[in-house]
Design brief:
The chain has 109 residues and is mainly β. Helices cover 0% and strands 50% of the residues.
Amino acid sequence: MILPLGGCERIDMLEVTVRTDQDIAISLPSGRCIDSLEIGGMQMRRTVAWRIERDPALKAPCTTHVVFPQVPPGFKNPYSADKLPEGSYQIAGMAGNYALAGHFDLPAR
């Protein structure tokens, strides 16, 4: 996903809590509803490992918190990974006209 930052009202920062390579909590403190999120390496366009997006055919409840690799109700998961290897990651997404951004490091275990 290439974020259309020119059409965004602003960028909201995500809060990320890394518990394990299979348990990464991602929150949007502003309370806006998450429409899409993706996790990828530092070259995001080439390294998307996980993506969720609101399915317009379903009436999804407002979601402000997700846990990788779970897919919230009302979302689809076109890119899926069960866990991530060690490294640095970016998170990008959208919440209405607001771009979402975050990052985290996953240390070796």
